Amino acid sequence: MKGILLAGGAGTRLHPLTLAMSKQLLPVYDKPMVYYPLSTLMLAGIRDIMIISTPQDIPLFKRLLGDGSQFGVTFEYRTQSSPDGIPQAFLIAADWLDGSPCALALGDNLIFADHLSAILKQATQRTIGATVFAYQVRDPERYGVITFDTEGRALDIIEKPADPASNWAVTGLYFYDHRVLEFSRKLRPSARGELEITDLNRMYLEEGNLQVERLGRGCAWLDAGLPDSLLEASAFVHTIQARQGMLVGSPTEVAYRMGFISRQQLIEQAQNIGKTELGRVLMDLSLRDRS
Known about the structure:
Layout (H helix, E strand, L loop, with lengths): L1 E5 L20 E2 L2 E2 L2 H9 L4 E6 L4 H8 L8 E6 L8 H5 L1 H4 L4 E5 L2 E5 L2 H10 L4 E7 L7 E5 L5 E6 L8 E9 L3 H5 L12 H10 L3 E6 L3 E5 L3 H18 L6 H7 L5 H10 L4 H14 L1
Parallel strand pairs: 1-4, 1-6, 4-5, 8-12
Antiparallel strand pairs: 2-3, 6-11, 7-13, 8-11, 9-10
Helix pairs in contact: 10-11
């Protein structure tokens, strides 16, 4: 399975913060925002990842992330000239996908759960259909909203409903089978002038091949696309790391735990940022494993 990290858009909801740089490069506590969805894709075992962003921001992502070898993965970069909807990412990556199943992560989303790796592994193992994740929110009108029947099966998905029938929102993480490009090419722009990810998900739902995983207690999903939610995401990461001593959204740590890089590579990366708390925690991880 290949992975796409969509980090485009103008970030207008975060102006003036995003007038000079991509919102996905803004800090969420001690790491760039893009590190969090990247870590999620890596936790799913995905090592072939395309990063899609604006023409002006791609050089900055390349400077930050390089070719991916420091994380034991491979990065490909493509530009999105105008933000014409999330499914546009599959059209941009058409030749690269080459019939592969694919996961797509939005660059401003953070998902945290102790058992996240197991949940993601289940999604990657589905050979037919799509898997999306739902989370209860206070403001479902901002998202694609899922309704369920009495047995917990998904009935419908509506994009940004004025009067939401439930408070279960679709998060910015999606897994699709090899037909995702075929389905994406059938989409037509909505009234907003964009290709809608909800319309793509509905195609799978209507044929009975959409799996919806509900993220309940013990899970956290944060969309850091607004000033308040950006602050909340930073506070959440700080609290987890300070209280529990574990890292959130560190591609280096994930790469090591997944076996993508060696202990020596972990040490080298920890030394490169040795004056930071992040570097100290990574070095402690390498020392614990030595003993």
